[in-house]
């Protein structure tokens, strides 16, 4: 597995992030900057040792109208015989629509990714991803739905189509949020995708917000799990592209976020992801730790 980390591997969608504002902006624009890093150790792999990634992201929102985000990442995948280095860039724009016929906000969003690396096979280099999404969040912020699509263009004629319907529900007086997302992924050539013609997976995330009485108590906690299989996936919430052809067979994660000031937060997360390389009949795990520091003004 090699993925490009982005906004945060454990955030909810941009719409549900509005449930807890990071800070009050002094003007019409609200700016948020993220610095993040990830380190993972592989277990059970005969070819991989570890992977690390660092990234920065800047997001700007104009009043309640919409906004944009720009980010970049650098990734190092340490094989037992070599090292792969990768650069990724990310851009996103969204527009909020307020229609009289709808009891909430309709959001149109477009993401783009470009990934380059020194893969000697050339199969994961110069990857382009286009990912539109339409979402709805009611005014009570207790119901969310979206439909996302991603088209990924790989070298050697491979393309990957992905459809991701999502449902989110708030409950317990807005202290809890449950989100479910289905991943339907279809590569154009099974021979370039571990002899897999399509994959289906269900991703679930539960978030609980606390009312911390001290800085040591988390502001919120996230628990996530992935069931089923997916390959060449594009994660819109995490702004991540899984651009090496191993089949992900599930994952589990735990994350906590602390509020360290009126406009600054720290998130720490850990998890385990399982993968299968069918070509060499090998199943292995990636155990990772993730840190995200964000500030807003």
Percent of sequence in beta strands:
over 45%
Q: Which stretches are low in confidence, meaning pLDDT under 50 for 5 or more residues running?
A: 4-25
Biggest sheet: strands, sense, closure? 14 strands, antiparallel, barrel
Whole-number count of domains: 1
Number of helices: 1
Please give the radius of gyration in angstroms: 19 Å
Give the % helix.
under 10%
Strand order of the largest sheet: 1-2-3-4-5-6-7-8-9-10-11-14-15-16
Any idea what the CATH architecture is? Beta Barrel
Succession of helices and strands: HEEEEEEEEEEEEEEEE
* Terminal residue distance: 35 Å
Fill in the CATH topology.
Answer: Porin
Overall morphology:
globular
Task: Please describe what this structure looks like.
With 297 residues, this protein is mostly beta strands. It has a single domain, classed as monomeric porin ompg (Porin, Beta Barrel), CATH 2.40.160.40. The protein has one helix and 16 strands. A 14-stranded antiparallel barrel has the order 1-2-3-4-5-6-7-8-9-10-11-14-15-16. Strands 12-13 form a two-stranded antiparallel ribbon. A hairpin with a 4-residue loop joins strand 12 (234-235) and strand 13. Residues 4-25 have low confidence and may be disordered.
Features:
14-stranded antiparallel barrel, 297 residues, 1 helix, single chain, two-stranded antiparallel sheet, mainly beta, Porin
SSE layout and pairings?
Blueprint lengths: L13 H4 L11 E15 L4 E15 L3 E14 L3 E16 L5 E14 L9 E12 L4 E11 L5 E13 L4 E12 L11 E11 L10 E9 L5 E2 L4 E2 L5 E15 L2 E14 L4 E15 L1
Antiparallel strand pairs: 1-2, 1-16, 2-3, 3-4, 4-5, 5-6, 6-7, 7-8, 8-9, 9-10, 10-11, 11-14, 12-13, 14-15, 15-16
């Amino acid at each position: 597995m090699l993925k490009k980390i982005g906004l945060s591997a454990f955030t909810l969608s941009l719409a549900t992030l509005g449930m807890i504002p990071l800070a009050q902006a002094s003007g019409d624009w609200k700016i948020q900057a993220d610095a993040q890093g990830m380190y993972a150790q592989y277990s059970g792999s005969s070819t991989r040792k570890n992977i690390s990634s660092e990234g920065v992201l800047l997001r700007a929102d104009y009043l309640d109208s919409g906004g944009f985000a720009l980010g970049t990442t650098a990734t190092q995948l340490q094989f037992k015989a070599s090292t792969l280095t990768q650069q990724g860039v990310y851009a996103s724009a969204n527009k909020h629509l307020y229609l009289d016929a709808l009891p909430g906000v309709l959001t149109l969003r477009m993401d783009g990714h470009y990934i380059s690396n020194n893969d000697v096979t050339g199969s994961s280099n110069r990857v382009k991803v286009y990912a539109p999404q339409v979402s709805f969040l009611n005014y009570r912020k207790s119901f969310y739905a979206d439909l996302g699509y991603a088209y990924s263009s790989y070298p050697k004629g491979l393309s990957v189509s992905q459809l991701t319907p999502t449902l989110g529900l708030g409950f317990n007086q807005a202290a809890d949020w449950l989100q479910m997302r289905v991943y339907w992924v279809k590569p154009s050539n099974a021979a370039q995708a571990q002899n897999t013609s399509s994959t289906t997976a269900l991703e679930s995330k539960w978030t609980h917000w606390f009312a911390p009485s001290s800085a040591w108590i988390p502001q919120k906690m996230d628990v996530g799990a992935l069931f089923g299989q997916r390959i060449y996936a594009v994660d819109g919430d995490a702004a991540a592209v899984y651009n090496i052809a191993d089949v992900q067979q599930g994952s589990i994660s735990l994350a906590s976020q602390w509020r360290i000031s009126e406009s600054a937060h720290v998130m720490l997360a850990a998890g385990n992801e399982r993968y299968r390389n069918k070509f060499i009949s090998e199943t292995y795990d990636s155990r990772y730790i993730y840190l995200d520091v964000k500030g807003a003004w």
